[in-house]
Specification:
Elements (H helix, E strand, L loop, with lengths): L1 E5 L3 E7 L2 H11 L8 H13 L4 H12 L3 H9 L4 E2 L2 H14 L3 E5 L2 H11 L4 E5 L1 H11 L4 E4 L6 H4 L23 H6 L5 E7 L4 E4 L2 E4 L4 E7 L10 H10 L5 E4 L15 H18 L4 E5 L6 H12 L4 E4 L1 H5 L2 H4 L3 H5 L3 H14 L4 E5 L3 E7 L5 H21 L5 H8 L6 H14 L2 E3 L2 E6 L2 E7 L12 H19 L1
Parallel strand pairs: 1-6, 1-11, 2-7, 3-4, 4-10, 11-12, 12-13, 13-14
Antiparallel strand pairs: 2-5, 7-10, 8-9, 14-15, 15-18, 16-17, 17-18
Helix pairs in contact: 1-5, 2-3, 4-5, 7-20, 11-12, 17-18, 17-20
Amino acid sequence: MNILCGYNVNIDSVYRISGAEFTELLDEIAGNKITGNEEEEEEEEELGKEEGESGKGKKKGVRSTASLTRAEILDKIENPPGIINSLSDFAAGLAYCMKNGLGAEWLVQEPLVFDFLKGRYLEKSLVRMGGNAGIMANVLSELGAFQVIPNIAVPSKSQLSLFSKKAIYFPGMAGKKPCSSDSPAMLARQNKDPIHFVFDFTDGDIFSLFGEEIRIPRENRFIATFDELNLRLFINPAFEAYALQHIRKMDGALISGFHILLENYPEGTTYPDRIEKALSELRAWKTRNKKLAIHVELGHFSSRRMARDVFLKFAEVADSLGMNEEELAMLYSLHGLPPEAIIKRDAETLAKAALALASEHGLSRLLIHTREFGLSVFRENSGQKAPEFEALEFGIRAAAAFAASGKLKGRDFVEKTTASLPRSNFGKARVGEFLKAFEGAPYREGAFAHSGGYTLCLLPTLLCENPVSTVGLGDTFTASFFLRGLELRVQA
């Protein structure tokens, strides 16, 4: 299979933060432990020198964030800003996710916060491939795709080194810097590697929120993203030219990265301006290759309006769309089902919401991935449930293998790594709910049903007790499901 991967590729700095460490961080940011001693002043001066500013200027910037009050942080936990312009924004975002067991990705717009995170966490983090497109490209390469072509905004040595060595092809990009017509101020900063700081936290761990003891209800992650070009949906000219020239040889395209767009940009453009180029590119591909299978993966948007607009735009051109339960909940204005029940992974509500989106917008396929089960809703075709379940199972096993080991090394590795992993008990219980709600039938370890011209297939996931990381599991599931589905359709 020859597959294009656009558009967001970056570097992930993955760090597992404990409840005790986060408690200390909260106290520091709230000003309880940052007292202005000589060691801290020297560190602030060094940070200032690195940026070509005086230590005094940097010190003032850092101290303005460090002196924020507990009340400000608590207010931001209750009313999440969704972006990071200060250390209090960062602390509130991480606290919000840890307190509720949720996952989220917020953009870092303040360079001083980026410097703080880089200085404090990068060296002690696991540095690996990041970005939906980058992760999915590596999954495809490791699991048997013939050629995978990724869009890379910043093809630096460190970024290129993180790609799989099996099937990735860089179309004339190695060692070259990206071209862009964006503002000079942005261009001056684009040589910085795009780093997404991923903070994993553990189910059952405890932290103190200024004296209130909080037990984390579910393992998940919070991502603080500093990424100039990807947040503008930058399409590298080398990728753009190669894709159009060779599109007739391509079997599929995995498209993502829209969730990190901004509503407005300093030069006056907006996110609809940014996605229009991508839409035009996808339409051009489809015109030249009508058999090209295009899957668009959504992501955690900063606003419901953006999520809705992106879904509606790409539903017109994509063969399939994918998302997790939280992203499905954000689209409640389109499907009308209670978001609270969807986030709790109530099988009936979640499946009805997915079915409503697929049927009302004429989708060929809608894929939902959660920690406990995968759900595929696709246009009814007699005899097709078996390959759909096979693709779901392949995606589930690949994601479980990556969770258990932090790597993928081919299909045999996936099978061996997941051979003894149990099915999610929560997922198995949802099978019963699904069967009752849709009058479905059991199939293998899951269930299927027919409704309104669509087939729904639900399959519990495999879980490991102590995952190496929770980051990238949805992308791993999606890419492997997509690859196996392409293979099965070609064989048929």
